[in-house]
Amino acid sequence: MSDLDTLRKQIDALDTELLRLLNQRATLAKEIGVIKNRASLPIYSPDREMKLLRSLVERSEGPLRPESIRAIYREIMSASLALEKDIVIACFGPSGSPAHQAALGRFGSSVRYRPCNSVSEVFSLTSSQHADCGVVPLEEPGHGHTSPTLDSLGTTDLHICAEIITNDGAKFLVLGRQANKPSGTDRTMIMLRIENKAGALVSALEPFRQRGVNLVHFASRPATDDSTGTLFFVEADGHREDLEKTTLLPELAAVCSGVKVLGSYPKP
């Protein structure tokens, strides 16, 4: 027997063992799904997903590269999600659209995707529980922020539960009906309603500076129900629970005409 045949037999044996372990993992995932459904817990847990991926990369002794480990386990987790529940992900645009491709990279190929003709349809399907999560564009390279997404964020009860950044620098948001738990390295998006008067924006940003909270994202939209107001969207380092401990949110409420936490999610 050649060295090549010997190595292939060893790989075949490992594949058999891997398949056994994957099916064992899948059985546990189904049991977890039963518990989640019984307790009305969200099937998709970005904080758990991110902690697992980080841990796997840290524990790996090679030669698999970190990006390969993440890609392999995203498909494993996708198959597990599909066993826990018939997962539906609403995406802006047809099959193959940028949002659909971003969603595939996050949720894998084992869940179902539902194309939507508008951003508002994604919000509507997710809010009405016809979809488990929604994926919408936030920022397109060369075109800036997506206004329909920002406008919908201003009025929705959904939570941002993840942010996806693709290879070309486009940003997408994953929307869900329940807030995330802390993952350890999170960001929080906050919408501030500011009056159009001198010094209003400086006053609104001062509480972040005083507490040393780093801001990593910034966008604005005119308030749709008030021609004199402006909505500012900021991304701050830290989970909402961390920011609440610093009394940041009450201070913002004191200097802004409106404050809305849109969601906390793991850093991409």
Secondary-structure map:
Layout: H1 3-38, H2 46-59, H3 66-84, E1 88-92, H4 98-107, E2 112-116, H5 119-127, E3 133-140, E4 144-145, H6 147-153, E5 159-165, E6 171-176, E7 186-195, H7 200-210, E8 215-222, E9 229-237, H8 240-245, H9 248-255, E10 258-266
Parallel strand pairs: 1-2, 1-3
Antiparallel strand pairs: 3-4, 3-6, 5-6, 7-9, 7-10, 8-9
Helix pairs in contact: 1-3, 2-3, 7-9
Protein traits:
4-stranded antiparallel sheet; D-Maltodextrin-Binding Protein, domain 2; 2 domains; 45% helix; 268 residues; 6-stranded mixed sheet; Alpha-Beta Plaits; single chain; 9 helices; alpha+beta
Descriptive notes:
- This protein has nine helices and ten strands.
- The protein is of the alpha+beta class and 268 residues long.
- Strands 1, 2, 3, 4, 5 and 6 form a six-stranded mixed sheet that branches. It has a four-stranded antiparallel sheet with strand order 8-9-7-10, sandwiched between helices.
- It starts with a helix and ends with a strand.
- The mean pLDDT is 89.
